[in-house]
Amino acid sequence: MEEIMNVMQWLSALLGLAVTVWGGYYLVTGLMSWRKPLDYGWHPNRTRFAILIAARNEELVIGPLINSLLVQDYPVDLYDIWVIPNNCTDNTALAAQQFGAKVLECTAPVRSKGEVLEFAYRRLRGRGYDAYCVFDADNLADPRFLAEMNNAYMAGAQAAQGYRDSKNPYDTVISGCYSIYYWMMDRFLNGGKTGLGFSAMINGTGFMVSAKMLDKLGGWHTETISEDLELTAQCTLAGETVHWVPKAITYDEQPLDYAQSVKQRRRWSSGTLQVGEAYFSKICARLSGEHRVSLADLSATLLIPAYQMAALLNVLAAALSAALACPRPSLFPAAFLTAVLFQLGVTALGSTLAACLVLTVERKWDRRMLKSVLLYWLFLLSWLPITLSTFFKKTTVWEEIRHTRSIVPQALIR
C-alpha cells in the first residue's frame, strides 16, 4: 500500500508541475494583454477584398450579415460578397442573391468548411483580390470591419484576426458562457499573444488572409476539421505573424443549449487533435531555427487536449494519494471525495474570478450574465469528458448548427 501511495504522490507531483507550468505560461500571456495593442494607423482605402461566407441551410439568417456588409464604412467598389452554399436543402442561394450577394454554388460534396473555402479560392483566384475575409452566415460585421482590416493589410499584415463578440450573450446560460469564453480569447489569448509579439490565433470567423499569403502557402489547403487552427499553424510555419485587429469586430451567434454545445466543442477538440497530429512534429523540428519562440507558443496551443487530460489525471492522482494516506480503509471514500471537492472548489473559484475580470476589463457587465458567471466553471469542466471522448473517436465531418432567427446586438442598433 505504501508503494502505491508513493507512486500516486510522485504522479500527482509530476502532473501538478506540468499543469502549473502550462497554466503559468498562459497567466503570463494574459497579463501581457494589458500592453497597448499594435496601432496600424490610418491608411487610404485601397485593399480589394473578397468576402467569403460558407453557408449550409442558412436561408433564415444570412440576410442580416449581408446587410451589415453592404453598409460598411468602405467603398463598395472595393469588395465583393461571395456566399458559397454547400450541401443545402433550403433556399440559401436564392436568399443570398435577393439580399445582394454573389453566389458561388459549391456542388461538390464537402466534409469541412476548409474544403468550401478552398473551392472558393480556386474559383476566385486571379480576379484581382488583395485579400479574403471569412465570415459565418450567422455573423454580423461592425461597420468599421473592412476599414480596420484595410489598415492592417496596408500596414503589412498578411493574416489577421478580428475581435469576436457575441450577438446573444443573454439568451441562455450556455450562450452566456460561450460569450465569456470568446471575450477571454479576445482579451487574454489574442491580446496577450500580441503583447508578447507572438502570432494571434485565427478563430473561425471574422478574419483576413491575403492573396499573397495564400499563394505562399500554395493555396487554401486545410485538411482537418479545424481549418482556422490549421491555417494559423501554416502561417506560423511559413514565418508569418497572424495579427490581432481588435477594432475589426464580428458579432457571432452562440449555441443555446448543451446538446449544441457538445456537438460544437467535440468538433473543436477533434480538430485540435487532428492539427496536432499533422503539424506537431513539423513544429518541433523547427524549434531550433528561426521563429522558434512563436512556434513554441503554437505548440503550447496544440497541447491543450493533453493539458486537459493531465489536469484530470492530476485531480484523480491527488485524490487517490490523499485516500491512501488515511489510517483506516473505511475513511478512503470520504478522503477521496474531499480531495476531489477541494480541487473542484479551487477550479470554480479561479474560473469565476477570471470571468468577473474579463467582464470588467471588456466592459460587459450586465446582471443578465450572473448565472453564466456563476456556472462558467462548470462549462469549462464539462469540456473534459468531451475531449476525452475525442481521443477514442474524432469528429471528421463539419456538421451545421441550425440558426432559425435573426438577432441584432445592441451595439449595432443606431
What does this structure look like?
The chain is of the alpha/beta class and 414 residues long. It is built from 14 helices and eight strands. The chain has an eight-stranded mixed sheet, with helices on both faces. Helix 1 crosses helix 6 (173-196). The mean pLDDT is 87.
Describe the oligomeric state of these chains in a short phrase.
Answer: single chain
Summarize the biggest pleated sheet: 8 strands, mixed
Give the H and E element order: HEHEHEHEEHEHEHHEHHHHHH
Number of strands: 8
Examine the secondary-structure arrangement and name the CATH architecture: Alpha-Beta Complex
Largest beta sheet: what is the strand line-up? 3-2-1-4-7-6-8-5
Count up the domains: 1
Uncertain runs are none
The portion of residues assigned to helices is 40-55%
Give the structural class: alpha/beta
CATH class group:
Alpha Beta
Average per-residue pLDDT, rounded, comes to 87
Q: Concise description?
A:
This protein is α/β, with parallel strands linked by helices and 414 residues long. The chain contains 14 helices and 8 strands. An 8-stranded mixed sheet has the order 3-2-1-4-7-6-8-5, with helices on both faces.
Spell out the key features of this protein:
alpha/beta; 8-stranded mixed beta sheet; about 425 residues; single chain; Spore Coat Polysaccharide Biosynthesis Protein SpsA, Chain A; about 55% helix
